[in-house]
Amino acid sequence: MSTPAARESEIDVSALVDRSPFGSLQWTTFVLCLLCLVMDGFDVQALGYTAPSIIGEWKVPNAALGPVFAAGNFGVLLGALLFSMLADRVGRRPVLIGATLFFSSMTVLTARATSVQELLLLRLIAGIGLGTIIPNASALVGEYSPKDRRATMIMIVGVGFTAGAAIGGFIAAALIPAYGWQAVFYFGGAIPFVLAIAMAALLPESLPLMVLRDKSRAKLAAWANRINPTLGATASSRFVVNEEKRAGVPVMHLFREGRGVATLVFWVVNFMNLLNLYSLASWLPTVGSEEHTSELQSLRHLVCRL
Fold first, then answer.
1. Is 102 strand, coil or helix?
2. How far apart are CA 79 and CA 126, in angstroms?
3. Beta-carbon contacts of residue 87 (< 8 Å; ≥ 6 apart)
């Protein structure tokens, strides 16, 4: 039963999260987003683990897979840019669930590829879904984390991507000798499918976005009550958020109000970081002579474990 205070006063959803214990709803959000990022990291790096086997089976030059890696990374770029903006409009929950189902199905289809051209197209399309996960999962975890532990929770979730890429080396080493390189992609597609079903049942929507978009007030009240069971909020409660709804392309706001230089510095640092990461973890199997493939693969596994 709702209390008069909940009906009459404003409910600041950001302050509600900051002042409430880290309860079951927050833990559910954190775990689901973390697991999704683990599988995101696994699937982004899956081609690197399987490249030597694909090269040997298809009898193609090592460098033939270079454009495939580039296409996958370009898809990740498109997904991160386009679907982050879409999430700001329709919500993080549907975008996360849809992207997870999408890259799950595309990863399974990758196992059915029979040529470099098919592989390139599939990795490009799959990359769009893969690139959608990191920004939206990290943002959702941040919005459900109290201010005093927000940075820590986002950091842990971010490490999930790297953990998935590293764990993939052990999984690939176990699956490829027994079942072939295709098994790596079947594994990488099946687990996200299960995660997407779990997210559809358990993952909440971003509370600030729901307030700003003034949508699904009954669900907003239900999730707010799960954060603080004593709140007694209803669909008629007045929710507010200390955030301005801004018009225009969201990415352009990164260059306004004195943020331009910092944005460019962060972009350059992350660009160089990813350049080194993908050069070591993905491109090594595609360079050098054929007789050096096993040595390059061993080095790549060592780098990923480190």
1. helix
2. 9
3. 95, 96, 132, 135, 136, 139
